[in-house]
Amino acid sequence: MSPPSARELNLLQCHRCRLVCTRDVTGQTCQRCGTHLLARKPNAIARTWALMIAALILYIPSNVLPILHTSALHHESTTTILGSVVTLWRADAWDIAAIIFIASVGVPVTKFLVLGLLLVTVQRGSIRSRKERTKLYRLLELIGYWSMLDVFVAALLAALVQFGALGAIEPKAGILFFGLVVILTMMATLSFDPRLIWDSQPKNE
User: Fold this and answer.
1) Closest among 84, 90, 49 to 178, alpha carbons compared
2) Which one of 24, 77, 167, 171 has the fewest CB atoms closer than 10 angstroms to its CB?
3) What share of the chain is helix, strand, coil (3-state, %, to 5)?
4) Do 51 and 184 form a contact (C-beta atoms < 8 A)?
5) 148 φ/ψ angles, rounded to the nearest 5 degrees
6) Taking 70 as the threshold, does the pLDDT of residue 140 lie above it?
7) Torsion 97-98-103-107 (CA) sign
């Protein structure tokens, strides 16, 4: 026999501070932070789809457009995200190249795939692997903030080179698009309500 759900126990969790509260009256607010309590995030699926699709569209120019323009005494170059990974790898800086590749390619693609999987299975009413899908969502929350690492690396490189008198680095449009992708995927992750996984009713099983 499965344990009772929070709904059956008449409990609600605050979206902001995660405090579990007793649902006594309609329109109740959190006892800790005063946030209005909701049984489920309103329009969670539609908002998550919209944010994820917008991030997916912006992800294309973030990889195609240059992120940095480097100028030295007798050399100028413009590089994309993947181009910078290749350049660093050829320069034997494989550790930095691996970090940038994971942060700029591995993490965003993983978030797109996992969010898409969660949305589709919830909309289909799948009851399979609920616990595993909930863990996948928690993993997205954990790794989401590391997506900004690529932007931080680019900013750090620009700041370091600006101290030198013989060279300069300028950020380009690609880094702006990538930053927007990171923000939108983080917002999409926060918009999704993992409790919908447990509300799903079998439809096409």
Assistant:
1) 84
2) 24
3) 60, 10, 30
4) yes
5) -75, -5
6) yes
7) positive
Question: Which residues are within 8 A (CB) of 81 and not within 5 positions of it... i.e. 6 or more apart?
Answer: 62, 63, 67, 100, 104, 105, 150, 174, 178
Structure confidence by residue, pLDDT tens digits, 91-130:
787 887 887 788 788 888 888 999 999 999 999 888 888 8
Contacts by 120-124, CB closer than 8 A, 24 or more apart: 121/197, 121/200, 122/45, 122/196, 122/197, 122/200, 123/45, 124/200, 124/203, 124/204
Tell me if 189 sits within 8 A of 141, measured CB to CB. yes
Which tokens sit at 116? 């898409």
DSSP bridge pairs for 171? 68
Q: Is the distance from CB of 67 to CB of 178 less than 8 angstroms?
A: yes
Assigned token pair, 72? 């030295």
- 44-64 and 173-191 helices cross at what angle (nearest 10)? 160
Residue 118: name the closest of 129, 109, 107, 108 by CA: 129
Angle, nearest 10°, between helix axes 130-144 and 173-191? 140
Are the C-beta atoms of residues 79 and 66 closer than 8 Å to each other?
Answer: yes
CA-to-CA distance for 85 and 5, rounded, in angstroms?
47
**pTM as predicted:** 0.77
Closest CA to 39 of 166, 199, 169, 148: 199
